[in-house]
Amino acid sequence: MTVESYTNSSLSCARLCLQKYELQYGQRLERAFGDEREVLQVGHVWHQAFDVQARGGDPYAMIASRAPGARWAVKLARLFAAYAWYWSAQPIALMETETVFSFELNGRKYEGQRDGRLKTPDGRRGLIERKTTSDAIDAASDYWRKLALDVQVGLYGIAENRPDFILYDVVRKPTINPKGLTKADLARMRKEVERDGSAVYYAERFDGSLLAEAFATESETLELYGARLTADVGDRPTYYFARREVPRTGPEYDALLVDLDRQVRMIEHAEREGLWFRNPDACETFGTCAFFSLCSNNAVPLRGAPPPEGFKRRQHVHPELVREATTTKETT
Fold first, then answer.
1. Does the global pTM surpass 0.85?
2. Are 13 and 25 in contact (CB under 8 A)?
3. Phi, psi of 301 (to 5 degrees)
4. 124: helix, coil or strand?
5. Phi, psi (5° rounding) for residue 326?
6. Please, are residues 51 and 43 in contact by the beta-carbon 8 Å criterion?
7. 131 and 171 in contact (C-beta within 8 Å)?
8. Least C-beta-crowded within 10 Å: which of 2, 20, 31, 239?
9. CB–CB of 78/229 below 8 Å?
10. Which residues contact 157 (CB under 8 A, 6 or more apart)?
11. Residue 108, helix vs strand vs coil
């Protein structure tokens, strides 16, 4: 089956490995029991939290139910609360959030879902892009320079007729994890529990019943870890949070249009000639590839064949686009 539209995710997949593109988008295969990597789940939940909040829902309940594990539920909930605290004096007024779009370019259809559109008091119109990263996000890091090459947001800009600016709203994922408690902390908290029935850990008070596990294991529980994480964010918020307007010039958009045309023509050529080849360098990107077992055993199915054992064929080519596109236009 021919893929009828392109997204940033599908284009990124093709750049990484054409065989993976054929399996994931040409044949619409996925693991029968889910194969989304933790790093992708974390980014999705972070984005969903803002969307749920904008729609009047409870972002913390959503984080608790959809985070990839209890530890990440604590990390993301604490980060979300700290984000609200840190940026409270500089709120972002969105015109809309999480909107799906499509546009035509040189006879080909591109689709995507942008984080939001906004307008400044001085009348400038822009887009917001929320990012989670493990990279350094200080002003001197290479992180910001690479964003000028960001295909995902470039597609958003093309669909939006090249907005005045793109505001990147970035959060750095925590690297600290639960650790053992010091003898001094254990002794102090035990005394506080004996005296008051509760104890303080990193400025937060915990009932003695909640500390029983910590006393038994002499290690932080997730609740205690969460208190330490909040304290760490409070001590160095610029390590975790950053916002910056990243300009995108006309020549940069023009170069992106050339890149898009060349890449899609490469995919179309592979489609015509059946040139789907494996890229061993991509097998461990974001964890082990979902299709590694097929490629490493020379068991890659042909188009039209039933899904291999352990896989299923999804209904939608681009499952991230579950809403009907809200923007449709012709770009030349």
1. no
2. yes
3. -75, 155
4. coil
5. -105, -10
6. no
7. yes
8. 2
9. yes
10. 127, 163, 166, 248, 253
11. strand
- The number of residues in the chain equals 332
pLDDT digits (tens, 9 = 90+) for 160-218: 889 988 999 999 999 999 999 999 999 999 999 999 999 999 999 999 999 999 999 99
Cβ atoms of 18 and 276 closer than 8 Å: yes
With both helix axes pointing from N to C terminus, report the angle between 250-273 and 8-16 in degrees, rounded to the nearest 10: 60
Distance between CA atoms of 312 and 248, rounded to whole angstroms? 40
Asked whether the beta carbons of 170 and 241 are under 8 A apart, the reply is: yes
Tokens encoding 140: 């001197």
Q: How far apart are CA 1 and CA 303, in angstroms?
A: 7
Cβ contact 94:114 at 8 Å: no
Which of the four CATH numbers 3.30.1360.40, 3.90.320.10, 3.10.270.10, 3.40.50.10810 does domain 5-175+239-331 have?
3.90.320.10
Residue 201 token pair: 């850990």
Secondary structure of residue 76 in the 3-state scheme: helix
pLDDT along the chain (332 residues), means of 10: 84 96 95 73 92 93 95 97 95 81 92 88 87 92 85 91 91 96 97 97 96 97 98 97 90 93 96 95 88 94 92 89 46 36
Domain ranges in the chain?
Answer: 5-175+239-331, 183-235
- Give the separation between CA 161 and CA 7, rounded to whole angstroms: 17
